[in-house]
């Protein structure tokens, strides 16, 4: 399938992509996740053939695509701004790419009908695209990308212009469409929710490099670095110093002393970053011993408390936050019991 090998690219004299390499298997959806400026859209354009790399290769199977122009790579593209033709109706927009394949009128109609059925737009053939909602326009753009039966689909922030409710609905629909068609896909986004919903595998880009890769569960459960944990919003990241090493680490931080299990080699005096997850904690009476084996106690003053769906997000002075079932009062001193499972040492 697709192989991207050692891609380098500079922008305004500074490295933007630094030796990016990955592969995409048949039927796999890979999300390039990262903040603005991390190089993910540039990487997508290089793969599509719209930009050239300074070094590295993009291959399909055994074939290097360097000399293959974008329109002959067999890749379908879907952009945030849809890129639909306002003077053409829905069917004509979907058929646009097919007319360059020397297909008969009947073959084009069958492809258009099949693509519109896939994206649930049957009956929209003669509608003017400017009369459609944002979500409907995005489906037309997807139908146009699917119509030529591409060997790879590429999405560049396709849902960024839509409101939250519509975006969530289209995420679910898009996941189903990709699964049903079996077309491998690259999906570029800065939105963690989109990546975790759609991806079979996530590649997290930072400073032009793949900082973390894995399934959504692997990336969430083991961010691997303080930057990744902060970017994903996985919880509180706290700097500390190891005071006791061994099977269980004891780490002294500005917020208190925490214990955690860690498979990485450490020794007393090492500086580490801890990820303290905000869930699974509970308020206890200060002074009582922890009731969970190995749990850490955290004391603090409540700075803010807001309702968050079925829980309360409680922020302590200093910025640490946790989710509790019962809401404490602002300014109240509380003691939280944090289980061993909620504390993780980041490599």
Report on this model:
The structure is a single chain. Helices cover 23% and strands 36% of the residues. With 347 residues, it is α+β, with helices and mostly antiparallel strands. The radius of gyration is 25 Å and the shape is elongated. It starts with a strand and ends with a strand. The mean pLDDT is 91.
Could you estimate the helical fraction of the residues in percent? 10-25%
Report strand %. Answer: 35-45%
Under the CATH scheme, the architecture of the largest domain is 3-Layer(aba) Sandwich
Number of domains: 2
Number of helices: 8
Quick structural gist:
The protein has 347 residues and is of the alpha+beta class. 23% of the residues lie in helices and 36% in strands.
Descriptive terms for the model:
347 residues; alpha+beta; Rossmann fold; 5-stranded antiparallel beta sheet; 8 helices
């Amino acid at each position: 399938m697709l192989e991207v090998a050692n891609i380098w690219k500079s922008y305004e004299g500074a490295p933007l992509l630094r030796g990016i390499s990955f592969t995409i298997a048949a039927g796999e959806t890979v999300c390039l996740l990262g903040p603005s400026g991390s190089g993910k859209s540039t990487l997508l354009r290089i793969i599509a053939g719209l930009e050239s790399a300074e070094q590295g290769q993009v291959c399909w199977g055994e074939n290097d695509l360097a000399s293959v122009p974008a329109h002959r790579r067999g890749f379908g593209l879907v952009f945030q701004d849809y890129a639909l033709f306002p003077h053409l109706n829905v069917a004509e927009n979907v058929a646009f790419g097919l007319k360059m394949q020397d297909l008969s009128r009947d073959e084009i109609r069958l492809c258009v009908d099949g693509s519109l059925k896939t994206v649930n737009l049957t009956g929209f053939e003669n509608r003017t695209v400017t009369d459609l909602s944002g979500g409907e326009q995005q489906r037309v753009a997807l139908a146009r990308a699917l119509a030529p039966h591409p060997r790879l689909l590429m999405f560049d922030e396709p849902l960024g212009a839509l409101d939250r409710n519509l975006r969530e609905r289209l995420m679910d629909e898009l996941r189903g469409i990709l699964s049903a068609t079996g077309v491998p896909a690259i999906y570029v986004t800065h939105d963690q929710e989109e990546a975790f919903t759609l991806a079979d595998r996530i590649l997290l880009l930072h400073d032009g490099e793949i900082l973390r890769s894995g399934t959504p569960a692997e990336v969430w459960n083991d961010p691997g670095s303080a930057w990744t944990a902060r970017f994903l919003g996985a919880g509180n990241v706290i700097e500390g110093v190891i005071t006791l090493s061994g099977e269980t680490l004891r780490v002294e931080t500005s917020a208190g002393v925490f214990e955690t299990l860690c498979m990485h080699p450490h020794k007393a005096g090492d500086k580490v970053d801890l990820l303290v997850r905000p869930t699974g904690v509970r308020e206890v009476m200060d002074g009582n011993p922890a009731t969970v084996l190995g749990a850490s106690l955290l004391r603090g003053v409540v700075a803010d408390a807001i309702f968050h769906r079925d829980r309360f997000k409680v922020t302590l002075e200093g910025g640490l936050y946790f989710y509790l079932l019962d809401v404490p009062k602002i300014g109240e001193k509380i003691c939280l019991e944090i289980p061993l499972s909620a504390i993780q040492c980041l490599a």
